[in-house]
User: Fold these one by one.
Assistant:
Number 1:
Amino acid sequence: MRQFIPSSFKIILRLFYYKEERVRFLREFVIRKRQNINIKKLDSQSKKVILFLIEGADFNTGKDRISGGIISIVSLCETTAEMKAIHNAQTVLCTFPQERLIEKHEQFANNTPVFRFSQLSYFTACEEVLVHVPEYLVLRFIKLFTEHKLSWLKRASYLHINILNQSIKLMPEPEVISRLKNLCDKVTITTAHQQYCTAHFRNFYEAPVHKFSVWISPEKYLFKTYDQKDNLMIISPDAHPQREVILSLLSSIQGLTIQVIKDLTYEQYKLVISKAKWALTFGEGLDGYFIEPVFSGAISFAVFNTDFFTSDFSEFDTVYSSFEGMKEKIVDDILRLDNENYYTP
């Protein structure tokens, strides 16, 4: 029976039966009104548009999501907009069609409004479009494109699609990239890490590859010295088979407090890492949980990962060759380094 019910009537039924749908409808009604105001601040006659695509708000909570990837995309978008005098294009951050709407990301500092994809019709004179698509959303992009749900892009006389390769482990297969090439005039790939910005990957994907990473440097963080620190170790939330064993070993260190990073805004996270002496990532290794605490005066621990680390990191005392090696050495290394004369982040 459901297949014969008009979609508009289904929406009405859901609003009638489900409180959360009514809450969402009212929330998005307000967001749409504000987005309609914000879009008018942009140049509708711009002949070039640079588009960054992201996921929408969390389905259940309606809140914007926070992750290193999302923060970096918003940062890249913000910096691109600041370079308008160079590229002479209008820069826009949009959610995918059918996603929960976002007016602005609230869990980290930024000045970038978020629009819904249907608003792109506002740019009536657009001739060239550059679309930045996160690597894990490429297949979905192709599906929406072929289903004519991204039809505004087809109006452009020149369409360039760039894959934001923020994690080599999430990149689609070369066959998928070949399908993408059939949809546009040009496909490129930009990377977040130097390790996979190489000729090997250019040949593997048969597409140009360039470094396009966020600006990250110490002055953006609150640095504290050894005597200003708490004996605190922050832990990334990533799952790993050795996680519980290593955390158990760390809990044996007298006076050490362990805090798993979760349910924090980015600004709250930066405040926590400023207090921490130590940081441990179970993730990709060369990630925010490793780099950002160092900028805040902490010592970071990780396992060397050939997908993300360049070879020089293998020389670091706190970058282990394996999790087995970490289990054997990390407690002794913390006890050895927990001295103002040796503590050198």
Note: The two ends are 64 Å apart (CA to CA).
Number 2:
Amino acid sequence: MAKPSDPKPSEITPKALFYARRGLILGGTAALTGLLYKRFLAPSPSVRASAPLPPEIVAAGAPTVAVPDKKNTYEEITNYNNFYEFSTSKYGVAETAAKFVTRPWTVSVEGMCRRPKVYDLDELLKKFPLEERVYRMRCVEAWSMVVPWNGFPLQRLLAEVEPLGSAKFVAFETLFDPKRMPNQAERMLPWPYREGLRLDEAMHPLTLLAAGLYGETLPPQNGAPLRLVVPWKYGFKGAKSIVKISLVERQPASTWNQYAPDEYGFWCNVNPDVDHPRWSQKTERRIGEIGKRDTLMFNGYGDEVANLYAGMDLKKNF
């Protein structure tokens, strides 16, 4: 029989990381711990690790896409992060990544396309101005946030490079630089981090490349300078610090799926009816709240994306 002192499933270290980092405690933090952190350790609300977005990269008059949920605060979003290249402690990423340098930065878009190109990041952001998108974000560890991203639809970039008919998937690769991302030296995962989407998922208008949040440049701990945002999928699908985007014919390798395929599927659509092997996904804890709420199918974006998976067994293809 479980005792009150027993850990909650959401506080348990993912199996892959447990074996890679013996004895390290990972996973979600209990609500009380979060409140204590917020009260005694969190930085002052006046402190910013980033700066306002330059006006030339913000889309003038762009419509705001929002959800009715209350947005999480800047402090919550930037001080509770999964970014294992820097730290396995959610509260430790911000400090470890604070001096991460994001300029100069290039993004290569290549593979099965007619017009491959290596973009300078600033050139890219001027070409595709940023819109505000307020999205629900759900982590596989059963916690969630509501984040006001500043980004542009990935479909705009892909349309410019003109995918070939043979391109079926889009692969993403993040920076590999152990000097700048110190946890990569541990080799706890097969770096660099890789992720992938089906082409129609990547072309969906909800799929973003984000370079900011709350109208400010994206902080290092949130995936600076450019990250993937797919709001109907679990958070590990959001590749951070992207340096390469490839159009490919076959389903690409996905780091967590490759490392622990019994726990992390390639598709990773938010589905409360498919439990993680070690905990339920039926409920979630919104950061900043006490208690839990029901998890929504496709994270609440079913009306927009369910048609992408018509005929698929979403329990098998988790």
Note: The two ends are 30 Å apart (CA to CA).
Number 3:
Amino acid sequence: MLEIVFLGTGSGIPSKRRNHAAIWLGYEGESMLWDCGEGTQKQLMAAKISFMKISKIFITHWHADHWAGIISLIQTMNMEKRKEPLFVYAPEAERFISDLLDLGYWGPRFRIIPKNVPFDSAEISTILSTKQFDILSVPVNHTVPAVAYCFKEKNKCKVDIRKAESLYGLKQGPLVGKLKDSGRIVFKGKEIKLEDVGLYERGIKVVYSGDTKSCGSLAKLAENADVLIQDATFESEMENRMHSGAKEAGQLARDAKVEKLILTHFSRRYTNISPLVAEAKKVFDNVLAAEDFMRMKLKSKQQ
């Protein structure tokens, strides 16, 4: 199960109700952040999420409302005697993390490991792969090098033990594990194939746009996502403002065939977000406006 907590849903200048951009993801013991705007550590405390357990931070781009919280977060981790390394993924991560660590007289006593994320082509990259999930990225259209991220859980296959027992007399035991691993076994002189007794679950897919105008690379990354979390700074795109609007977010969600669209990164000019939701809903029905501390849980789906 993937849990998502929106820690900051504002843009540029924070407001009383909306902090700078940050989203927490929790999955099977993994604790990660997408962006880390100013005040993120206090938002984590308020949400009762342990900042010490965060192992990876994924920065979409180096505008301060998306990264300035890293400085104070690292300082607190250091004072709390953190030992585990912290991985920071971002465009030009090595350059910017080196600059940040040169500020002041602090010198963290734990390793901070920058991971450069490609930003100069339209190709989707796999920047992290584990046994259970991948993190993908793709460059997007903003005023500085910027990327969108995707959490993609790997598809699962379980043995339907009732079906296996009914068809072949196979009961729970070591042979079931072997069947999952190899895809086929011989039992009592009969071949059993996993596809004949398998229950398939499609992995969760969640995409976060960061700051961007709607673009083809984001649409490609978001294709068939369960959730698309998209920049909706304004009601619609504005000239010389390299941000998506709610209208364009709705169009992209429709075209990419996503299941749910969550709008975020709202300009402080909007004290009432309902017009943005209404604009997106003109073209896409399943729309939600993010709020600070909004939580959601997602599970893989049986096919």
Note: The chain has nine helices and 19 strands.
